[in-house]
Amino acid sequence: MADGMKYAPLFCILLLAACANTEPISTPAPSMPPSATPPAVTPTVEQCAYVWAYQGLPDLSAQIDQAIKQIQSDASGRAEAYGENCVYTSSGQATFSAMETDFYFAINVKDLKDDNELGTWIINTMKIVEALPSSAMAGPQAGFVEFTFKVKDDQKSLRVQISIYKSLPENINATDIIPTLFPSP
Hints:
The chain is an alpha+beta fold.
């Protein structure tokens, strides 16, 4: 029996191990003093209201006015940026963001019904606009060119989208410009 007794403690350890709970023991995390809640951050960005707006481009206007006057001394040209003003509600101040550059030309002609004369003026004036570097333009999109053709006490205004003009065939005849851009209904 003495030999059986020497295995008794080993038997007890195995028996206790088999009966032991094998789930992990959870120990509570030490309690930490509550930390101070950070103060709420109030945005300092002032709200604004967007309003469509124009902004003169004096340097570009001077450049295109000079160019059109080289073709006809009493013609005139100007450029404006079209976009949005962000008008701040508390101060009334505004920040302008340009969307496009628009051009305006006033040209004297002999006959408002002469498609060849008007078409020739459109072609020559668009050459001035197309020769401008893209860095001179305000805004990411192409604007328009508005022509005011004048005869004595009468006038005719035509507006040409620059992107549409650029889609015309390069060798289009001046006589075909008006009926192509402004087809009769």
